[in-house]
Amino acid sequence: MSHTLLKATNIAHAFDYPLFSHINFELHEKESIAILGRSGSGKSTLLHIFSSFIHPNEGKVELLEQDLYTLKENNIEAIRRYDLGIIFQAHYLFKGMKAIENLEIATLLSNETIDNELLERLEIKELMEQKIGELSGGQQQRVSIARVLSKKPKIIFADEPTGNLDKETATLVMDVLLEYIQEHNAAMVLVTHDEDMAKLCDKSYKLENQHLEKF
């Protein structure tokens, strides 16, 4: 039986208005789950709650079998550094540095090494000596994904990782992400507007009317 890597129980959150409530969610090894929903429904906020960056108003999050909000901040930081891979909508790359240097920083922090086969699969190996500012948006996105996967995370949290990519490149990226979680006994939560990308995942949910429902 596969291990539960993430378990969220009765999650509720609001800003000036209620976003969602009574959300229960589980993620297991080798599992990919997509979360769909209109803009403003709270998809990214929910992803940030699952990945430890936002404390919900109510509920409990267990990450890698640890009660997230009973941990000290240095323990949470260690989980983020070694076990979580966050793919943001913004790339957060150092544009004045070479692509390879951006990857080296990530692997240095996580005590891993750069995976040349991964670079080939993402079709960016020949771009490594170029500065980030010289790359297209789609190339930068693939470099940011390579940086995340080079950490060898147990859980990938991906916020619209294919949103700015053409269909062919988006499918390539999804194939690489899905292959990674199978090869490394990892798992992924994907936030997306693209139903075609969501269909590639094992399960899909829709965040609508403040609730998360199977899609």
Protein model, in words:
With 215 residues, the protein is of the alpha/beta class. The chain has one domain: Rossmann fold. Helix content is 33%, strand content 27%. A hairpin with a 3-residue loop joins β1 and β2. α3 packs parallel to α5 and α5 packs parallel to α6.
Which helices and strands, and how do they pair?
Blueprint: E1 4-14, E2 18-28, E3 32-36, H1 43-50, E4 58-63, E5 66-67, H2 73-82, E6 84-87, H3 99-110, H4 116-121, H5 137-150, E7 155-159, H6 167-183, E8 187-191, H7 195-198, E9 203-208, E10 211-214
Parallel strand pairs: 3-8, 3-9, 6-7, 7-8
Antiparallel strand pairs: 1-2, 1-4, 4-5, 9-10
Primary descriptors:
single chain, 215 residues, alpha/beta, Rossmann fold, 6-stranded mixed beta sheet, 4-stranded antiparallel beta sheet, 7 helices, 33% helix, globular
Brief write-up:
The protein has 215 residues and is of the alpha/beta class. It has 7 helices and 10 strands. The strands form 2 sheets. It has a 6-stranded mixed β-sheet, sandwiched between helices. The chain has a 4-stranded antiparallel β-sheet with strand order 2-1-4-5, with no helix packed on it.
The named CATH superfamily: P-loop containing nucleotide triphosphate hydrolases
Q: What is the domain total for the residues?
A: 1
Radius of gyration: 17 Å
Shape by Cα distribution: globular
